[in-house]
Amino acid sequence: MSASWLLRRLALILYTVFIVSVLVFGITQALPADAAVTLLGENATAEALNAIRERLGLGDPIWWQYLRWVGHAATGDFGLSMRTGQPVGPEMLTALGRSLLLAVAAILVMLVIAVPLGMLAAVRQGKLADMATGLISYLGVSFPEFVTATLLAMLLADTLQWLPATGYVSPLEDFGGAVRHLALPVLTASLILVAHVARMVRSETLDVLHSDYIRAARLKGLPERTVLVRHALRNALLPVVTIVALDVGYLLGGIIVIEEIFAIPGIGRQLMVAVTARDLPSIQAGALIMSATYAVANTLADVAYAVLDKRIRYD
Amino acid sequence: MTAVLSLRDYTLDYLTGSRPLRVLQDISLDIAPGEVLGLVGESGSGKSTLAWAIMRHLPKNARELTGSIRLGDTDLCSLPPRELTRIRGRRIGMVFQDPSTALNPTLTVGRQVTETLVNNRGLTRRAAWDLALELLGHVELRDPDALMRRYPHEISGGEKQRILIATAFGCRPELIVFDEPTTALDVITGARILDLFARLRAETGVAALYISHDLALVSRVADRVAVMKKGRLVEEAPAASIFARPAHEETRKLVAAVPRPENRLVHDRPGERVLLAAEAVSVRYARPRLFRPPPPPATHAVGFDIKAGEILGIVGESGSGKSSIARALTGLAEFSGGIRFDGRPIGSARDMDGAYRRAVQIVFQHPDGSLNPRQTVGEILSRPLKLFGTGSANLNAEIGRLLEQVRLPAAYAARWPHQLSGGEKQRVAIARAFAAKPSLVICDEITAPLDVSVQASIIELLLALRAETGAAYLFITHDINLIRQIAHRIAVMRRGELVDLLPIDAVDADHVHPYTRDLMAASPTPVG
Amino acid sequence: MTDLLRRLMRTPQGAIGLILLAVLAAACLFGPWLAPHDPEKMDFLGRFRSLGAQNWFGADQFGRDVLSRLLVGARSTLPMALAATLLGTVAGAVVGTASAYLGGRWDEAIMRTIDAVMAVPGLLLALLLVSTLGNGAGNAMIAIAVTFAPGMARVTRAVALTVRGQDYVKSATVRGESASWIIFREMLPNVMAPVVIEATIRVSFAVMLFATLSFLGLGAQPPASEWGLMVAEARQYVHQAPWILIAPSLAIALTAIAFNLLGDGLRDAMNPRDER
């Protein structure tokens, strides 16, 4: 891995954030014929519309509006919320912290379940464990988050009363409470990922198990345990990094729904509130921050993969 | 003296779909201590399956019906998996065809060699490391210490194969199975590996089973040669006499198919008229890009000419740029320099008009990729006929005639590519080229993926077509013996440059380039 | 075509997928006639009636028959998901093929931009679009199509690039065939199969995404019996009648499973090389 490769990755992040900002701005502010009407609705008075046009600078040329918005956003200033009147940036970043807590926990839980499951299925190909994993994967990817969330809440919170159905507790204040409140959302978020990742881990492991160097290792007389642990599992784990990185996008989408259902004040719920209230600065800030997070996560995964995999030379 | 390896009446089936497929039938053979048995046969003859059976590494659908495999006094067939682990590596070693896939890409070479030695010789890590250094030095690898710390992708294929051979010998087995150990390497590297094999074998006296599709090569390394056909052992004879007195029909077929340079198949002389001349042709694939240095050119200022009706061979190792010449001449790669065709200058792919494209045809290496899987043979052949207007009014009759020309039944017009064998696909590709009534056909390694006997029949076909149509061939290959049989002149390429352009009777002369001499010397010629 | 169908039925996934789809298609085409009750008819005496002879899948908070609502609701879910996928696939296929055909710097620029667009999570992009275009089923469909297009472009380009490198395409180039012949006769038939397979699997995502948007109140609007909307409305009555939540949930999952199975079955059936 060379400096020029890192430089290229960095340039790619900047380009990604640029495209995302154009996209977010374009969809939310440039696309509507009159953003003021979109904001206030059809029945708004002329004065109110003029006032909001004035405040948002909607009279200026569109590229100027964009540059102004991006310029401010780059310094962390996303404007004031139209709903609360508070600065949007800090509010969104606090919310992002809570969402990341949920996301990271979900990824950890998923890894602990999916990786052994996928590998077990590959090693026992065609046996009961494999078929069970296949079935779980099929079901898992076929249930949207809101269905999984609702069904889990019905079972674990309403019927069995094991876990609280909604709410958020900061882990800094009450760790036990935080764990109990996060359990259902994390479980929901990780289930779909488990289904997907276990399936990919299985096929990656199968590829490795059928590779010539594994056959060579067996025929060299190495014990089966050494072949599996030292030669097969290690190599099958590498692509998982990329798979998980790609799934982060899916996870972030899912988090919008999950936070809404379990009433967690993360960035997804903030976005939903903003969408419902047509709070333009909040929508823009939330969408941009979320997408940038995904882009950064992907780059980190690429770097991790490059560090782990000796085969790839980045020059 | 008891045999190291002994098979008796060994029969094996694969369970596929409706009924079992017989893969090995009543195989009986012995390998004496210190003896090398060569095993030859075409693909599908069961020779690799036999190796897997000996290594006890058979697919799940394999069923052993009768017979026994004994290593010394151990019955391999009845050993439980745990015991097998103690046999593999320790008592039977194996060296594979492709060294680049036999090593784990994410572990260092040193770790993989020492882990084998620790496991099979019961050494400590330290002792194994020291022994590995010694073994690697012994197989003429320079700077073993640095090599041990590298990853497989950081060393060459020849080095990998040396390491694998050193490891196999280092475990001091009674028998080593070699499965085409030089096929994946280029000619000169392969020849050096064979020399190494001969030396180690003389030093250690280990017995070996040497599997190959190349009868000429096997007869040089083995003491005895066994010939397989459709799962049966059809002949066993001393290596020295198998070429002189082949007994079985299959052996005779294999012997006949081995190209012998002294056995010329082309006797005429080409005309004097220059058909195509390449002048300082350079091909460079990638442009320089941001943050990246430009790659070296694939070929550098290559110049040659082809006369009407001539067969010009281009030889060289993989990566020497010989295929890039074909791509330049057909407009598939951008090139600098110039081409003259029939006296007409052609400066770039844009200058290649319909007349040029009709006159210059190409047949590609891989028959699987060169036919569109979603078109029937008839559709594939009809295209050049329509495009160049070379067909008669009756298209179907014309397609039938083309198929007949390449010795295929006319009914094949309705078949799909996946219903054909490799050799048949290559015939269709040749028919497609000749549909255009070309004056030059570029053959890019077209025999490489085929069995020797199929190879021989394709060459026979090409020569017959040349006799019929008078087309010239630009024949790109790495098979020196084959090209010496058919070419009028040979162009030798190395690292993108043309190092020699010789008439066929001058390739053994004294004034040739040293690389040409190495190349000629490295090609095994049949003994006897 | 019949040949493909026969091969599809021979794979277990394909057979189950096709059967499930046949049921769904019947619900879409004949739902209102098959429904045992009027899906809008309220019956206050029959509120939260549990599963039984009168209401096979029970009745909801207004006493409406859940089965009838599901059967009629198939119409507001499935055609929308199919249309969205089709639209997104066509748009993506055009961009992807063009990118592969143009090659070089254009390809690089287009693909980097598509990668960047894909940095916006799918649901978020759909959310942004719907919030701008306005709530409703039609807008949700457009949003999903836009969301799918970049991914399909990437898949198509990857396949097209592989196909472009094949010797039969080179052979056509060398022969001097026109660009349109090469694209439409040599490349497209070979690019189609993987794209169709990918699109089939994506229908299941479209079904889920559409239901999710409706669940969030941005897709189909009440009193439509769209399945995602039914789940949203049923949530507050979980204690009284879990079935009004479970029934539409399962309907969504079964539809998604059907398309997933069909996609996997097609993958096996559409590969003529595997036959020999």
Can you give me a brief rundown of this structure?
With 315 residues, chain A is mainly α.
Instruction: Point out poorly predicted stretches of chain B.
Output: none
Oligomer: heterotrimer
Alpha-carbon distance between the two ends of chain C: 20 Å
Major sheet description of chain C: none
Our count of helices of chain B gives 20
By DSSP, the count of extended strands of chain B is: 20
Order of helices and strands of chain C: HHHHHHHHHH
C-alpha end-to-end distance of chain B = 29 Å
Rg measurement of chain B, Å: 26 Å
Form type of chain C: elongated
**What share of residues of chain C is helical?**
over 70%
Helix content of chain B: 25-40%
Beta-strand proportion of chain B: 25-35%
Query: Averaged pLDDT of chain B, please?
Result: 87
Query: How many E strands of chain C?
Result: 0
Task: Give the overall shape of chain B.
Answer: globular
The DSSP helix count of chain C reads: 10
Report the largest inter-chain contact.
Answer: A-C, 48 and 44 residues
Biggest sheet: strand arrangement of chain B: 6-7-8-3-9-10
Rg calculated over all Cα atoms of chain C? 22 Å
Class computed from helices, strands and strand pairing of chain B = alpha/beta
Describe this structure in words.
The complex is a heterotrimer of chains A (315), B (528) and C (276). With 315 residues, chain A is mainly α. Helices cover 78% and strands 0% of the residues of chain A. Chain A has helices spanning 3-30, 35-40, 46-56, 62-74, 88-123, 128-142, 145-159, 175-209, 212-219, 224-262, 267-277, 280-308. In chain A, helix 10 packs parallel to helix 11. The model of chain A has no long low-confidence stretch (mean pLDDT 82). Helices cover 37% and strands 25% of the residues of chain B. Chain B has helices at 47-55, 81-87, 99-102, 109-121, 125-138, 144-148, 157-170, 187-204, 215-221, 239-242, 249-257, 322-329, 354-359, 367-370, 377-388, 395-405, 422-435, 452-469, 480-486, 514-522; strands spanning 5-16, 19-31, 36-40, 62-71, 74-75, 92-95, 175-179, 207-212, 224-229, 232-238, 274-283, 299-307, 311-315, 335-341, 344-346, 360-363, 440-444, 472-477, 489-494, 497-503. In chain B, a hairpin with a 2-residue loop joins strand 9 and strand 10 (232-238). The mean pLDDT of chain B is 87. The model of chain C has no long low-confidence stretch (mean pLDDT 81). Chain C has helices spanning 2-10, 12-34, 66-102, 104-117, 122-133, 137-164, 167-175, 179-215, 227-234, 243-269. In chain C, helix 7 (167-175) packs across helix 8 and helix 8 runs antiparallel to helix 10. Chain C has 10 helices and no strands. Chains in contact: A-B, A-C, B-C. Chains A and C meet through helix 1, helix 6, helix 7, helix 10 and helix 11 of A and helix 4, helix 5, helix 8, helix 9 and helix 10 of C.
